[in-house]
Design brief:
Length: 232
């Protein structure tokens, strides 16, 4: 019997009954509260009624696929989303991340790997910080509410967008390598998934830069990584 470590609510969405049974059993054995859905519409109903703290969804499902489900959830919530799919191509990963997913696990996957991703997603969502808020040049970061303000306006960020920006804001004017950013935000298992950075950096620039095509704050260091310029 695995010792219960967390009572967080996890919504599992997959049209394969065997997958949902296995995930329910494993997640429950770790102390998580679990609900399941077989497709996107019923998942949205459960999401509205139950307010889960994490969503794990398959990518390919009938009627409403995982990409559309992510988009619909992102319209109303910043809850962490982990996407599962048998597809491993970079294009599919990028599409899932663009739709609002925070992490991506390719089937077949080991349960140890998935549980590690679950712990990271929930830990980062509930993480507290000694500093409740701080200024980073033209930006104000509120750690308690996980919000960012710039030029007097609140910018709505997804959980991973927020984590990535906070890490960079805490290391201003320094070159941060791809490897360092991946490990800091997605964990050690992410080193072979560099598309995460490209997608999320693009999303941050669209939300934070006056001219995303000519970034002043989130600057690329070719072949190395990125640099955060607090005042552009």
């Amino acid at each position: 019997m695995v010792e219960a470590v967390d009572a967080s609510r996890v919504l599992v969405v997959d049209d394969e009954p065997q997958i949902t049974r296995v995930l329910r059993t494993v997640l429950s054995s770790h102390g998580y509260q679990v609900r399941t859905a077989a497709e996107g519409e019923s998942a949205l109903t459960s999401f509205r009624e139950w307010a889960p703290e994490l969503v794990i969804t398959d990518l390919y499902m009938p009627h409403m696929d995982g990409v559309e489900l992510c988009r619909r959830i992102r319209e109303v919530s910043s809850v962490p989303i982990i996407v599962l799919s048998v597809k491993g191509e970079e294009r599919t990963k990028v599409e899932a991340l663009d739709s609002g997913a925070d992490d991506y696990v390719t089937k077949p996957f080991g349960m140890d790997e998935l549980m590690a991703r679950v712990r990271v997603a929930l830990r980062r969502r509930g993480a507290s910080d000694d500093v409740a808020s701080f200024d980073a040049g033209d930006f104000r970061v509120d750690m308690d509410s996980r919000r960012v303000h710039t030029r007097g306006q609140e910018v709505r960020l997804t959980p991973k967008e927020f984590d990535l920006f906070v890490y960079m804001a805490r290391h201003p004017n320094r070159v941060l390598t791809h490897a360092a950013l991946l490990e800091a935000v997605w964990g050690q298992a992410s080193q072979e998934q560099p598309e995460y950075l490209r997608v999320f950096m693009g999303q941050l620039r669209k939300k934070l830069e006056p001219d995303p095509s000519n970034p002043r704050y989130l600057v690329t260091e070719p072949w190395v990584g990125y640099r955060f310029n607090p005042r552009g």
